[in-house]
């Protein structure tokens, strides 16, 4: 029988999660000292690496003293023999270990990282993000985010989309809504882009189907649990659609791709956070805005008919209704009144006061907004005139539509909002590595 | 025998590239009218879609008049019978077609998009980017870019890296080098990030191995063919390295992943541009800075010994040397003098005036810069003191290193620079959808 110890040279680093498959081998672990526990005749060092935790057991006065010297969070290299032990994490630990420090002795973090949760307020955690995020529970949302983005891209790559990178600095603050940040552009005034909307539409004329994953900026003067001044927008736009339903079908496939990737690549992170990954139905249920209002009038104390938008309480009720009636955690609400949508929104030809647009509700909140856009130059001029807006600031944007553009539409998913909802976070900052807001510009 | 015409419903859109496999079928194409040619008894409409070109042949006075009505770049839907014709693009064309416009009649673009190349200066092309990029030759670099980024990510995903998204707005302009753009941050002054360097290093403490694909901003006052004010940086950083050679090994695999993806996903674009995708050797040759200088002194008219950096002509000579001596279009130059590298660069322990850093030369130009970074808090303090810089502006960055950081390093690839080199572009703007520079803030 070949000893497994011959297959892993002592100098090659193995990861904590590999130990159970290497019983009997002499191996080297490298990682952070997550926890040190000294008993009378034994010192346990628990190392943390990107795969998880592993324990090394030091006995004898010399080894124990060498192990006990290192403060928690010091980066260590530990070489020893992998030994089965049902009590150890993963059922294996290192015995007869020797230890070397790869960093200087770590200063204690402002909170203990080895406890099950970090006992500190969110502002304190955010102030110390580079260290706080080492805690497995605070790290997990970002593993889920990374998996989600991978799923987003894989789904769209499979559908013939092309990835683009568009400018984040623009000449005019033309998209209405949230405020913009001004930039000193070689002595002139420019602005940070609030979305890649105009660029992605123009690129439908080039690639037909495009997506972008990138930062967007909102000078949001509200200090809430839901708003960030910079977030990551997952944008898609596609041409040759019949109407918004073709866009919704792509979004459905994207959500299926994202949830599949989360299950496959971030299962441990979800388990750690108790996050349940939703099933994406083959066909996500949809309800028209006016029918949604009728339902709310009939079944809740409110009568929202005549209102141009849904209140948060109404979105929650509709989400519960979709779960109850259709067994779906997702619900498309279509046909929002044109008055509440951007000027580039395509109206419903059969009912022009309503739009060929949608919101996707997920677990009680709006997660995605999208729809069909106008594609004829004269329709843009009429839409702007109808809102009393001069076309001049949009000259560059509108030029695209002079030269032949197909019916098209798209959507944008806020990555941090998606992850927050998925893990049930009380604050969107939990799903942001280094949040930027009214009060926070560091670290 | 089953007719293929039953397998494709007439209403389903097919792509131009699919026609040769659908001989005999009744199909619908949708795309831009690339070229219209009217002869005495026939009108040809060449449609362009994301897959390529396809031709429809209109005969008879009524059909010819209907076809001849549409100006080029109008978006059309054409339904007809797929008929083999060796003279047609791809060997098949649509006969007995009917045509409907999906857009309004297009205004003529400022240059003909159907000619083999666009007969306009680069500034004119850039002014009209949304239309100009529809030209297959101007579109192709961006297909190559998209493939390259996909390859970058796939390679790193396979090596256990985690994707991150870091702030593009920062509190202080701490990275030396190019200028920074100032942002009005709710009445305070902030800056656009010149690189994710500090963030990616901090995230090595959390994920060990991270990458980011995102915009970086350089307030570059030079108007050259090589500089952009915003570009896409492909950043990677990894912990638990022995030295910079572990970083170089990852970069080698990343380049192999990028070139594989370009071959696989952008072969047509490369062929159109005559771009030769380089082979990435199993081991990219490397040369130490001092040996490179010795070679240059021995074999060129120059004697650069004592200079702290390589001149562009020297980089070209070394690239040619690597191709001649090692058959490689890539060459690592290692050991650059510490004086020319950023303060966080790790010195060579055996020769502390030189660094554990590298440049990667590709076809005569520096493509990538990277290296090992300092990882001990006290080394950072000493490095800053040695440069006469106070540590105060770096407090947040330095805090990471108080709490245990492993030996680590990384690199950054400028996406537009990579694509430019690959296609042999004279100007980096050819590889940028909507360039931003000293003189250009639109479209």
TrEMBL record, chains A, B:
Compartments, record wording: Cytoplasm
Cellular component terms per the entry's GO annotation: aminoacyl-tRNA synthetase multienzyme complex; cytosol
GO molecular function (one): ATP binding
Binding site for L-aspartate: 175, 218, 369, 373
Region feature (Disordered): 81-101
EC number of this enzyme: 6.1.1.23
Region of interest (Aspartate), residue spans: 197-200
Oligomeric and partner information: Homodimer.
Name the UniProt record assigns to this protein: Aspartate--tRNA(Asp/Asn) ligase
Source organism of the structure: Sphaerisporangium rubeum
Gene: aspS
